[in-house]
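Quick one: structure tokens for this chain, please?
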Amino acid sequence: MSDESVSARRFARESMAVLDRLTESAQDDVVRAAELIADCVRADGVIQAFGTGHSQATVLEIAGRAGGLVPTNRLSIADLVLYGGEPPGALDDPLLERRAGVAARIYELAAPRPQDLFVVISNSGVNNVVVEMALHAKEHGHRILAITSLAHTRAVPAGHPSGRKLADLADVVLDNAAPRGDALMELPGGGAVCALSTLTGVLLVQMAVAEASALLIAAGERPPVYVSANVPGGFEGNLELEKRYTGRIRRTAS
């Protein structure tokens, strides 16, 4: 094993190589994802983004950020407390993500409309609440865009009683190209370090948003996008855009 078996330089080199490959290999799926997003926006829908754990970082890349689309909503297990009346201590339960009915309650609290698109994010694609959310959305007629690692999900058994995985339920799957377990570099003596899925997930999200914006522009529509609240007039302009989706998107301090 070389002296550079684990190093900043190696992680930068290998992760950027994955990003370069993904830019080309994901093109067709990104176009299909963009069509779902553009169709949702044109139908006055909201993009409902959900993930748990570190997948929430990719959810934040979708919902409510500068340069992103306005009709986006972040769904979270914390919604059970913030909007559902559960005591804060409920979030201390380490098995909450595995409990039946959690996703259904989060869905109910969001009160989505039929034209809303669900973007469900999970590196493994087998987490119980993630699969339950996809199942629940599908049963209610929503289209589903999944961001997941196909390498990981194919290497592990299903965790949901249905035997289904996130990738099985999606209309479009964006493969984030992360390895099984997410970490990129093996450590001497076992284990691995430096997760990849956030980097690749961000790339896929922004590629899809760019392509969806292009589709809207080609149709003669102006994409409803956020301006940074930290430029003059940005905060006020954003509030004006959000009025169209009053009661359908949540913008809380985070």
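The chain has ten helices and seven strands.
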